[in-house]
Amino acid sequence: MLPRKFIKLNNIKMTTNLTFESFESEWLTDILKDNPSSIEKGRRFSRKLIGQWLDFDDEYVAPDDIIFCDGTGDGGIDIAYLQRGDTDEDNSNDGDTWFLVQSKYGKAFQGTNTLLQEATKLFDTLEGRRPNLSSLTENLLQRLRTFRDSASPKDKLVLVFATQRPLTDDERIIVDGIRAMGKDRLGAIFETDTVSVENIFHRTLEEISIVNKTKVNITAHLVESGKELLVGSVGLPQLFDFLKNYKAKTGDLDMLYEKNVRKFLGNRRKVNKGIENTLMNKPERFGLYNNGITIVVEEFEKLPNNIEYSLTEPYVVNGCQTTRTIWGVLYNKLEAGGTGTNPELDKWKEKLNQGIVVIKIVKVGAKGEELLTETTRFTNSQNAVSDKDFIALESDFQKWAKGMASKYDLFLEIQRGGWDSQKAYERQNPDTKKYVDHINAFDLLKVYGAAWLSEAGTSFGKNPPFSPGGSIFHRIVNQPDFGLDDLFAAYTLHKSGNRYKFGRGAEKQQRGQTRYLFYMLVIELLKDCFIAADKQVTNKNITRAILKLSDPSNEVAFNALLDFSIAIVDDYLTHGSDYSVFKEPKFLEKGSDINSFLKWEQLGKSNEATPLLNNLIAQYKIAMKGGIGGQPKYRDMIKDVVLSIDNNVDE
């Protein structure tokens, strides 16, 4: 999840008044709408919570990668989500992870007994000891057996307990025991995790200061360098203790990286193999091989024992790869349980105790956004993160969020949960500005990539390329003239996709997995109208044309463009049609898997890749010329709109 929390929510200044109770009430509005049954409430709850936590929208996830099993015969699995590995991007995980979710909403959760009962049910299911499973769960179980048999050390099987409120300390101890039990019964790939609505609340807040301050102690050898800087070293075991204490207090280790431009979110990000190898083989030399970490804090305080410091609101802004790899390796080594002796492990621990990490702790204060931004920028200068990443994260998206509000009366959600916070604030403050609609910034990047950059397959199949540091993210935001209007034009296309009911629950089967293909086809047909108008095809001109076409005065022309695009989709996904995807040579070569083929990065890019699709597009371009049998000449109508755009309009 990859992947959408790439900007902190700082466009909502009003959140300084927001309480968790108000946020929770608004968050649950969708769950309770229309007075659903208890079963439906639980289903809605689990889908929304897990979708926000793992940063996916089930409308966009391939049907084969997310299975909703909740109900009779679910075998202890409400949701199963396969997050596939990807080695093409630096900020992606190169192993596959199955998240098996057991969700309990409200009174359905009865504490430790519920945890143990549901875990036992899951273990029995995975070991083939549970009869009377539903057909969905039976099919899933076959895939999970194959996964376990072929899993590598990079792959994970994670049992997630999803609850309305955070677990208590006693309940967390039970989860730790379930993790040890699972490793014993299912192998080293088994892990556990927990998530609650409060996790989403904390990730959403602009200023953590409105909730209880997070204070965590760290034992380290540090010296002051001025009033705002501590420098020195921290032992590897002591840094691990700091991470454990942070997770224990917040329930969410990911929050430690909220200020970092390249987050390393749990086991959902790629492990730095060099760091891992050093920790496994030569931990005593870690300080020699690693550049160290930087932590920003609101305040630090030296405690009486001289080597322990209290850190208020700590965030790792440089070294997320380092700290998360340390967490992963040491957790597996030191928290595996066992009462016997292991000479090899003892020898490794001796070397570990000699290892250190160079550390800087920077005090930025409660309102130190400028210092925080500069610290983040310059401490990451040795990494492959360009200045544009920081401008996009800390400046541009904030500016665009404000621009969306003032120019288009649209709430641009730059972090999952932001819309729930906004609506909760509106409820608390009736006189404040109210938004009718909202859109997630990450979703717009994927729409833009699919349409303007012709990356329909990648948009459907992958998230990392669109996240900060990703290849397509760079292609989009590094355009010198990319901005607010481009995002709003992408929003216009997104609304059109909703209008035609693409995605999960599509009324026409052909539209279940072809949302991004539709976006690409709209722009492909529009480009032909540019050629007819003898006007230069640039991304900015495409944006201007989409905005012009979406004006009510051009409704007929715009609807024609959309209708022709949807007709191509429907024809292409129909068995037996002359230009059907099921007859594409590459589709047959690739094993006739429609899901995989629609995620192919070469989809629609050349005659060699998809000759039938390209031929079909050509046929519809001819049809758009019209004039036959009195049909309107839609291309001429769209061409007139293209000719009317003003190249000098500035955002």
Question: How would you describe this structure to a colleague?
Answer:
The chain is of the alpha/beta class and 651 residues long. Among the domains are: 19-204, Trna Endonuclease, Chain: A, domain 1 (3-Layer(aba) Sandwich), CATH 3.40.1350; 437-644, no CATH class. It is built from 26 helices and 15 strands. The strands form four sheets. It has a five-stranded mixed beta sheet, with helices on both faces. The chain has a five-stranded mixed beta sheet with strand order 7-8-13-9-12, sandwiched between helices. Strand 4 (156-163), helix 6 (169-186) and strand 5 form a beta-alpha-beta unit. Helix 22 (555-572) runs antiparallel to helix 25 (611-625). The longest helix is centred in the middle third of the chain and has 22 residues, at 387-408. It starts with 19 loop residues before the first helix and ends in a 7-residue tail after the last helix. 46% of the residues are buried.
